[in-house]
Each structure stands twice: as C-alpha cells, then as structure tokens.
Amino acid sequence: MLPPKARFRLERFLGAAAMAAVVLITLANVLVRYFTDMSFAFTEEISVFLLVFLTFIGSAKAFLDGNQIAVTYFIDKLPPARRHQVLLFALSMSALMMALLVWYGARMTWDDYDLEVTSPGLGWPQWMYTVWLPVLSLLVFARIVQGMVHLFKHRVRPHA
Fold first, then answer.
1. What are the pLDDT digits (tens) for 48-98?
2. pLDDT the model gives residue 103
3. pLDDT recorded at residue 24
4. Considering the entire predicted model, what is its pTM?
5. Domain map of the chain by residue range?
6. Among 25, 49, 120, 125, which one is least packed by beta carbons within 10 Å?
C-alpha cells in the first residue's frame, strides 16, 4: 500500500524479537522438562503475552503493507473509483475499532492498576500486561491512518 521509503522496520524488529523470545522460552521449558522433573509452567503467562503482542505487531505490519484481511471477490469487480471508496470505508471502520480498543484498553489498564490486580501465574501487576493493549492498538491505528493518507494522496477520480 505504501511506497517503500514510507515502510518502517519497527514492526519487523519487534515481531522478530517477540518470536525469538517465545522460541527461547519454549526451548528452555522443553529442556528443563526433559532433563529434570521440574516445569516452567509459569512461563506460559509470558508466552501468551508475547503471542498477543506479536498479533498486534503483525496487524500493524499488515495494514502498513496493505495486506490486511479482506474479502475482495466483489470489491475487485467494482470500478476503480468505487473500489477506492469501499477501501476507505473499510479502513475507516478498522480505525474506529482500533480507537475503541485504545479507549477501552486504557480504561482496563487503569482499573488493573487502581485495583492492584495481579497475574495468576507470576503474581506480577496485571497492568504490566494490559498496558500494551492500548499502546499496540494505537500503533495499529497509526498505521491505518498512514494507509488512509496514502489513499487520499493517490485518489482515483471517476470519469465524467
């Protein structure tokens, strides 16, 4: 969707780092289970968090590249001007969804902080996990807006 100079490597780096961490945690868990009778079951909490983190990073990258999930069978049959309008509408609805996740995620994070909720596995403050919901939703929102700006700049005009 965006020209190559506008594509940032942030998502690629964060995604690779999160995936590497999941692999290392899983490898350590397997090795400990194989050589001892112990288990690193508490690491599941971190692994689940990293997979959710990776999902949001992947969504941001997909919107940045224009590879978001879309049903294009009918859209591809539309004239270019109408296709452009439908794409802008879809991006607008995606932006609205991410904005709602930012708002409600921030409220949930504040509740976790205010009520001193702790995580079930490690007993860490829950807000340390939930704070990433609004932060990463904001990143995805920014990438959607970036894609919408690109579409506005390259607007397809209907024939008169």
1. 999 999 999 999 988 888 777 777 788 888 898 888 888 889 899 999 999
2. 98
3. 94
4. 0.82
5. 4-153
6. 120
Provide the mean pLDDT of the chain: 86
Residue appearing with tokens 């990143």? 139
Q: Which amino acid is at 67?
A: N
Token pair in block for residue 66: 């224009």
pLDDT over 60 (residue 4): no
Q: Which residues pair with 118 in a beta bridge?
A: 125
